[in-house]
Structure formats: C-alpha cells, structure tokens
Amino acid sequence: MEKGLVIKSTGSWYTVKNGPNIIKCKIKGKFRIKGISTTNPVTVGDLVNYKIISKNNIGIITNIRERKNYIIRRASNLSREAHLIACNIDQAFLMFTLNFPETPLEFVDRFLVTSEAYHIPTILIINKIDLYDAPTLEKLISIKKIYKNAGYQCYETSVTKRINVDIIKDLMKNKINVISGNSGVGKSALINAINKNLNLKVEEISSYHKKGKHTTTFSEMFELEEGGYIIDTPGIKGFGLIDFEDNEISLFFPEIFKTSKDCQYYNCSHTHEPKCAVKKALEDGTVSMSRYRSYVNILNKDESKYRIE
Ligand code: GDP
Ligand code: ZN
User: Fold this and answer.
1) Residues flanking ligand 1, CB < 6 Å
2) 134 or 77: which carries more pLDDT confidence?
3) What structural domains does the chain harbor?
C-alpha cells in the first residue's frame, strides 16, 4: 500500500504526492469525520493510502490517516453540511496592517479564537511598517506587547523593503502553512517575496478570487522551494463555522483562561461577578483591555465592529 499527501482537490479528483511522484486519485468507499457531515471526504493536507489502478498513474485512495486538525466551513448558508477546506495544518499566519488598511484588533482576536478552537498555532504578521508614521510605530510596539503577552509570536514586516521577510520564510520551512488576512494587507506580495517560483500561480489565484462567483472553490497546496507548503484557502478570512457555548469562549483567550483560575466562581463570565481575577488583571495589564473588549463582544455576539469587506 502506497502512502502520499493530498496537495490538490477538485471535487472528484485528488492529486497525491508521494516523493517525486504525482498520482491522480479517485476515492473508493465512504470516509467520515465523527460527528460532522461533509460535502468532500478528502482535502489538501490529508495523508492517505492509495493503490495504482492503471499504467498512467491513476490511483484509488483507500484510507485516510487520522487528522491532527482541520478547517471547515458551511457548504452553503442553508446547509448543515460542512465543506472541508484543509487539514493537518502545522501553523497559520495572520497578516494584518495598522494602516493602509487599518485592521480592527477585534478581527485579529476573532481569528485567534477560531484558530485556538481548531488547534492551529498562529503567528501574527504586522505588515507595511515602511508606511507607518511615528504614532503608528508607537502603536505597533504596544500591539506587539499585547499579543506576546497573550502567548503569540508577532513580527512586524515590510514586504516591499524586505524587512523580516526571511524570518517568516524560515518559520514556514518544512511546515504546512496557511496564510490569512483581510485583502490588501500584502499576503500575495509576501508569498511572492518568499517564493519566486510561485509568482505566476499567486497571480492566477488572486484574479480568480476577484471574480468572486465560485463559492465552492477547492484548496491547493503550493510547495515552497526550501521545503514545506503554503495552502491557499480561497475566500477564507477566518476559520469560521464554530458555534461556541458562552462558557467556552474564554478557553480560546489563553491569557484570560490562565487568569480565570483565580476567579471566585468557577463559572465566572468575567463580566459582572465579584472577585473576578480577570477584571483585576485588567488593572495591572496582565490581560489587555483590547483583548478583553473582544472577549466581551464575542460573548455578547456583537459583530458590529469587526466586519471587514
Ligand atoms: P493581499 O490582498 O493580501 O494579497 O495583498 P497584496 O499582496 O495584493 O498587496 C496589496 C498592495 O499592498 C499591493 O499594492 C502591494 O504592493 C502592497 N504592499 C504589500 N506589502 C507591502 C509593504 O510591506 N509595504 C508597502 N508600502 N506596500 C505593500
Ligand atoms: Zn472572572
């Protein structure tokens, strides 16, 4: 039985890479994730077993290895079915900018909540620092502090001036990476700066996106020249499709969760209760006010501030 990695899916065909060999595969039988029903059983990042059934390298996927994580979205607005976007992701990069355009921090926090829930370690990239004036650079320092304090790696970059690009390149090496962020922040520019070979592909993809009519696009992984992959996730801004229970949300704010062990009530929501350690931590800065506000807005299902086109 041969083993390989699914690097592209088009609905009925899957491209499987096994060392230097590329095999076009179909699936036989039913594959299911426990508890959820998906429109596509196999996705990029899947490690599979297959067998060759014809001389021109056509195969059949016979088994999918257990996934360490996956990202899904609702197949359509009305559907209860989910569409598997990618799996076995080593890390996500969330790129944002403090200006040109300004990204609300609540958008960043909501993304981090879903990546925590999906068990995907996430690294933050603040791009376009070459365009920042002195007050914005001050803000950059305090924002980096907020996220480092919450337990996240955070790098400031200028893709155009190639500042810190090689640090990101090294971090991506030999890993399966996802890059996300609102449009215009410099994701394509970064991918091109890291990987000259991908130039053409990235352009193709973004022009494809701009047409905006294909809702069931399929993901693809691009191989990095020094090893590892970047997954392109068409149209994905966050790792949505999670219906949180109120008492779960604080689990996905690592610094709030850590602090909450000292709250008087075990089920403290950190909003109105007496002797709340989280509220106390706001005073000494262990929990930042902006992260706390995002937490409260998520709890209150207040989505007015984070929506981004
Ligand atoms: P994407 O939508 O996130 O893929 O963003 P693009 O990569 O298409 O970049 C959007 C625009 O920002 C392009 O005009 C880039 O040239 C520009 N850009 C990207 N990174 C930087 C940067 O670090 N500094 C400056 N000044 N412009 C940048
Ligand atoms: Zn509390």
Assistant:
1) 127-128, 130-131, 158-160, 181, 183-189
2) 134
3) 2-64 (2.40.50.140), 70-232 (3.40.50.300), 246-299 (1.10.40.50)
